[in-house]
Design goal:
Elements: E1 4-15, E2 18-29, E3 33-37, H1 44-52, E4 59-64, E5 67-68, H2 74-80, E6 82-85, H3 97-100, H4 112-118, H5 135-147, E7 153-157, H6 165-182, E8 185-189, H7 193-199, E9 202-207, E10 210-216, H8 217-222, H9 224-231
Helix pairs in contact: 4-5
Bound molecules: adenosine-5'-triphosphate (ATP).
Adenosine-5'-triphosphate is lined by residues 15, 20, 38, 40-46.
């Protein structure tokens, strides 16, 4: 059995003392992809932000490779090997593709070769400004930049946002391949349920800040109605297990 790269125990987090995620447990082992699903406002982004340190938990513990992250700053978490691709992609429109790989945290060197290996379409665009790239190319750059850090844990927030389904269908399998080849754990927040569960090992559905359904991706895909009802907050015990 693989070691957990991420363990979240009883996480409660939110904004201005109001919890939007409550008592959440989640585990990701090396090389595994966990899809975090749920309707708008369910708390998916907040969960990712708590892991990368952008939101301070009100309660609970988050461990990365066994290390408690409570006192670890976001930049130090990035250096430990946690890479977060936010919903807005975190790119700089005035900079070229190649320049994005020169922007590391202090003392950090990014490895563009990894990005170009997984996204070969990016290499001929290395001198193009990000603002001139298509949405799909920008998303490749955002993910490629995360891969260039050699992450052990990848947090991906709605890669599909604003992209044509055909682009997303080509992007997500790259994430699968990277996880398999590198042993990196992945938390994938995604609105395209089917697609996410096609590449994920496990899935969980958040509703109003609580996990209401979790299980093997294949089982979840086979129970579409259960999946949909969980979006509306119906708890389902069928696949509820301790870890995901
Ligand atoms: P979406 O798919 O729409 O991005 P989500 O599941 O990622 O949704 P979150 O972005 O985590 O959900 O938001 C959960 C709740 O927290 C929402 O009600 C949202 O309005 C609220 N929220 C998010 N960011 C902030 C913030 N900076 N300040 C206050 N409330 C916030």
């Amino acid at each position: 059995m693989s070691a957990p790269v991420l363990e979240i125990d009883g996480l409660t987090a939110g904004y201005d003392h109001a919890a939007v995620v409550r008592d959440l447990d989640l585990e990701v082992v090396d090389g595994a992809i966990v899809a975090l699903l749920g309707a708008n406002g369910a708390g998916k982004t907040t969960t990712l932000r708590a892991v990368s340190g952008l939101v301070r938990p009100m309660q609970g513990a988050i461990r990365f490779q066994g290390q408690d992250l409570a006192r670890v700053q976001p930049s130090a978490r990035a250096k430990l090997g946690i890479a977060h691709v936010p919903e807005n992609r975190g790119l700089f429109f005035g900079l070229t593709v190649a320049e994005h790989f020169r922007l590391g945290y202090r003392g950090e060197r990014l490895d563009p070769a990894v990005a170009y290996r997984y996204f070969p379409a990016l290499e001929p665009l290395r001198d193009r400004r990000c603002g001139l790239l298509s949405g799909g190319e920008q998303q490749m750059l955002a993910v490629g930049r995360a891969l260039a850090r050699h992450p052990r844990l990848l947090l991906l927030d709605e890669l599909s946002l604003g992209l044509a389904p055909v682009i997303v269908e080509s992007l997500l399998p790259v994430v699968r391949r990277y996880a398999e080849e590198s042993g990196c754990g992945v938390v994938l927040v995604e609105q395209h349920i089917e697609l996410a569960l096609t590449i994920a090992d496990r899935g969980c559905v958040l509703s109003h800040g609580e996990i209401v359904l979790r299980g093997e991706a294949e089982q979840l895909r086979a129970n579409h109605e259960l999946l949909i009802s969980s979006y509306f907050g119906e708890h389902a015990d069928l696949f509820t297990e301790q870890s995901s």
